[in-house]
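Justification of computing resources. Each target in the renewal requires a structure prediction run like the one illustrated here; the chain below, 374 residues long, is used simply to show the kind of job we budget for.
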Amino acid sequence: MQSTQQPGTGALQGTRVLDLSRILGGPLCGQILGDHGADVLKVEPPNGDDTRAWGPPFKDGVASYYHGLNRNKRIQFLDLSSAEGQEKVLALMAQADVVIENFKIGTMEKWGIGFKQVQQRFPRLVWCRVSGFGEDGPLGAWPGYDAAIQAMTGLMSVNGEADGGPLRVGLPVVDMVTGMNAVIGVMMALHERQRSGLGQLVDAALYDSGISLLHPHAANWFMDGKQPQRSGNAHPNIAPYDVLQTGSIPVFFAVGNDRQFKLLCEHIGCPQLVQDTRFATAGQRSIHRDALKPLLEQALSAFEGDALATDLMKIGVPAAPVQAVDAALDHPHTLHRGLRVDLPGYQGVGSPIKLSRTPPTYRHVPLTPGEHFE
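Resulting structure tokens:
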């Protein structure tokens, strides 16, 4: 496990981030920036971020959900609807390089502290707004929630078994991707500021991120006009790219080209499938996937899944056992890659972004108090 509390030495050391956001997309953006050295000061309303109550489990009355999104920040409480809170947050904006907020559009403007209202006063400030649908358009300024966006953008329509109904992805993928897109936008704006000396608005909307996740279904629809369908664990364009049953456990096979298919067939003792015209090329395998799957599973029934997946990966065939969350988090490679963080009173998932000279550091556990930028 990675346990580090060294002073900020990351790529963003010296960058000051004022995180006014709640729930997921904005806080994730702030945590990513904090992991890479930014000084992040999180301002919460007097009753705290809503996710403090999103449990169980809880620790000292605060839910695990909150703990997973708010490390490497120091927090203080302000009522931004009050004159005193507005005065204090304006003073913090004067020191900040980046502001992150995800209030309902119009809320900060009502308080007199919106982007356009402070832009001239703080011309270098990069302002990151995370919202449901953006400011304008047919759905502009509507509130947005991950599952609703999954439904609206078509993600649920292509997720689930072929003979089942639409299914929500089992994690808040839209919120998380929006948070990542927000980070990308912030970094672009900071980079451009070096040239112009000016900040700008970074507009990160859940709806936009949901639509952006539709590959390859959108690309398929643009080309042939056919309505994408649910395919369970199978890939709509590639076969075998699916969970197949072995003699013990299910294993996912991601066979993307003819060479990998040949290696797979030779390894499991059915080289004749390579010569079958139905399976000789990637395109034909995709067309004839319903015939191919039972033939492969018949051969796979003679193999123990874990060992088979390891052996196939060694020869260049992508395959992996279907693991539960605990097994994934305890896997030796998870530990080797520094994806477990262990600090006093805190455990979490480490940063997936690795920089050779300025790696991520973990300096503040969630709920660390703070009044000013360091």
